[in-house]
Amino acid sequence: MSLLDVEDLSVSFHTPDGIVKAVRNVSFSLKEGTTVGIVGESGSGKSVMSQTIMGLTRGAQVSGKVVFDGRDMFTLKRDALQALRGSEIAMIFQDPLSSLHPYYRVGWQIVEAIRAHDKGLSKAKAHERAVELLGLVGIPQPQRRIDDFPHQFSGGMRQRVMIAMAISLNPKLLIADEPTTALDVTVQAQVLDVLKRIQREFGTAIMMITHDLGVIADMADDVIVMYAGTAMEKSGQHDMFYEHHHPYTEGLLESLPAYGDLRERLRPITGQPPSLINLPTGCPYHPRCPYVMDVCRTKVPPLRQVFGEGPHQSACWLPTDKEGRAAARAAVAAGTYSGATDARLTGDRT
Amino acid sequence: MLRFLVRRIAQGILVLVLVTIAVYALFFAGSPRDIARRIAGRQATPEVVDRAYHRLGLDQPFYAQYRHFVWRLLHGDLGFDFYNGQPVTTVLKQAAPVTLSLAVGAAILWFILGVSTGVYSSVRPRSFIDRAFTASALFFYSIPVFVLGLTLIYFLFFRLTKAGHRWFPASGYVGLTTSVSQWALHLILPWLTLALISAAAYTRLSRSSMLEVLGEDYVRTARAKGLSEKRVILRHALRSALTPVVTQFGIDAASVIGGAILTETVFGLPGLGWESVHAIGNQNLPIIIGVVLISATAIVVANILVDMLYAVLDPRVRLS
Ligand SMILES: Nc1ncnc2c1ncn2[C@@H]1O[C@H](COP(=O)(O)OP(=O)(O)O)[C@@H](O)[C@H]1O
Ligand code: SF4
Ligand SMILES: [Mg+2]
After folding, report:
1. Nearest-neighbour CA in chain B from A279: distance (Å)
2. What is the pLDDT of residue A348?
3. Is the CB of A40 under 6 A from ligand 1?
4. What pLDDT tens digit does each residue of chain B (320 aa) get?
5. Is A225 in the pocket of ligand 2 (CB under 6 A)?
């Protein structure tokens, strides 16, 4: 049974400029102790989606269903939701400096989190536990550092403090929203190691949000590629890197030096992500897609099973079999791609 | 931090020195006889003018006069009120507690009033209550002290008394040591007047400060921790939102003497403001000089206190 089920989740904001459709019809599920990676350019709705799952989105119109551990998050009473936040689902954010309160000692903030849920625990016991947690996430001399303020820590250490606070009640699910984006590369790896170790030790499920495919390669079991607020492709980690179907996924990979085809030049995706107020008709990716066909401009591609049996879905009108998809790729590479809706998609149909 | 504080105190002392020089230059310029006449007051007899002339050492060179002036100040001697024939300190010692009672009471009231309405507004922006608070803040902000004071007297004293409810006295002051309840009763209307007018700015300031802080990442963290909304607002958001409010409070609390002048006049409270109005009427310069020096000191001290409070509130200031 899965720990988290997100069904057809949509989130929109009414703004003076119009309705911002930040998340559209996203569904996925996450099994206990596993990691789902949510990847996409900035502005693709990753943060809004994750915060909506926790009920933290304010002033938004939300539809769909989120079931966590058998409980429907959107019909839970306020007290029940509060009791669940921070204890069963915890969250860490991109910028650990602004995410910790500047006026309170880190120990105080961790103790507050623990005692918000474990009211019977004495302050001394909670303090002891906080020291233990800081040690667990690899902060040297936790006994001494616990009385420091957030600004007295380095970026990586601050994110460890956030992690310590997030895991203080041994949550079943940890939502990590770009936890390493604000850190430099070596520190990134250390923080990811801490997360992996915690997952191994406590069996925590992780929803890892990132725009960095390196993080996905390092952490994720399953991957959801998001674009313009919706899921473009869902697959296992291996397929995402080596058997991807969606042109957007391909574009993301090719814009990355370590994963792109080394014989080719590095190719950033051309153009800009669409406005979430005025979405393009048909496939939201069509203005930037090298494979665009007539059908793409008018009909929204549904998520379809691709490449046979495995759990692999793609929202794209290209052929769903490996040969057809490969032919399209070859045609685009050769410059003979005609954009026809025909199965083999090449200039000289056979 | 300590260095910062020492520097601020040194700056404060410098400001006070400049104030004494300015006061001296302003009030003690001209021929010695003129000065003596001015200080002695409008209706002074020639003997009094003579006394003033000698007491102020006006026969000595200018710098020696100034040195004496400062020397006397340092010994708590603010000069002699020739008009009433008593030391200035005697007059001010009677007046200061009145102003202090008025100022402290009003300040507490306006702080609580302003911050609570501001916080409430920020939690429910654009609600009916928010708009009501905004409108009344604007109303009280633009109404002159004496209009509000007289209106309160009219309704809460005159009309009530006529209707047979003598709840509040119209004017006067009773010392705190004489009777606490009478003290408070005599001050309620003045407190309310001064507080309502000053609270308006605090409603706006705390509202905007809160709205800004409520959008901060650490407030989202507080919610994500599963804290109650009350705790998120009061312990996390308000804690930071208070910093600019407290700064403003320090500035306003120091300059409350200005607002007190009118309030004291309307309610017949014999405080520093009332004394200075009378002193101006009688051209009683020593009293005016005394009030100026005391106000300047109050402002300097309040500013240093605000800086210290900053450090207490914000560890980033304290620990840098
Ligand atoms: N409160 C809000 N009001 C209006 N628009 C919002 C609000 N929050 C987020 N958005 C919009 O939703 C879109 C998705 O944002 P976000 O989830 O932060 O993207 P990501 O995390 O993938 O970078 C953005 O275009 C953003 O401007
Ligand atoms: S549906 Fe069409 S436009 Fe969209 S990604 Fe697939 S080929 Fe490109
Ligand atoms: Mg984001």
Report:
1. 27
2. 45
3. yes
4. 788 888 889 999 999 999 999 988 888 877 888 888 888 887 788 888 888 888 888 888 888 888 888 888 888 888 888 888 899 999 999 999 999 999 999 999 999 999 999 999 999 999 999 999 999 999 998 999 889 999 988 888 888 888 888 888 878 899 888 999 999 999 999 999 999 999 999 999 999 999 999 999 999 999 999 999 999 999 999 999 999 998 888 878 777 777 788 899 999 999 999 999 999 888 888 999 999 898 889 888 888 888 888 888 888 888 77
5. no
- Whole-model pTM? 0.87
Q: Assess B126–A contact: CB distance below 8 Å, yes or no.
A: no
**Residues on chain B touching A147 (C-beta within 8 angstroms):** none
Token duo for residue B142: 């633009």
Chain B residues in contact with A83 (beta carbon < 8 A): 226
Which residue, by CA, sits nearest to atom 12 of ligand 1?
Answer: A22
pLDDT for position B63: 84
Radius of gyration of chain B (CA): 24
Q: Is the pLDDT of residue A344 over 70?
A: no
- Ligand 2 pocket, residue A318 CB under 6 Å: yes
- Under CATH, which number does the domain B97-313 receive? 1.10.3720.10
Q: Where are the domains of chain B?
A: 2-77, 97-313
Which ligand lies nearest the alpha carbon of A225? Answer: 1
Residues A132 and A175 in one domain: yes
Print the domain residue range for A185.
Answer: 34-49+75-222
Residues in a beta bridge with A304: A314
Alpha helices in chain B (DSSP H): 2-27, 32-40, 46-55, 62-74, 88-123, 128-142, 145-152, 160-162, 180-214, 217-224, 229-231, 238-254, 256-267, 272-281, 285-313, 315-318
The CATH number given to whatever domain includes residue A119 is 3.40.50.300
Q: Tell whether ligand 2 has an atom less than 6 A from the beta carbon of residue A301.
A: yes
What token pair was written down for B292? 């100026």
How many A from CA of A24 to the centre of ligand 1? 12
**Nearest bound ligand to the CA of residue A57:** 1
Residues A230 and A152 grouped into a single domain: no
CA B207 to chain A, closest CA, distance in angstroms equals 18
Cα of A216 from ligand 3 centre, angstroms: 15
Q: Is residue A14 part of a domain?
A: no
The answer to whether B70 and B62 have CB atoms below 8 angstroms apart is: no
Strands A222-227 and A35-39: parallel
Instruction: Read off the pLDDT of residues A204-227 as tens digits, 9 standing for 90 and up.
Output: 999 999 999 999 999 999 999 999
Long-range contacts of A263-267 (CB under 8 A, 24+ apart): none
Q: pLDDT higher for A149 or B39?
A: A149
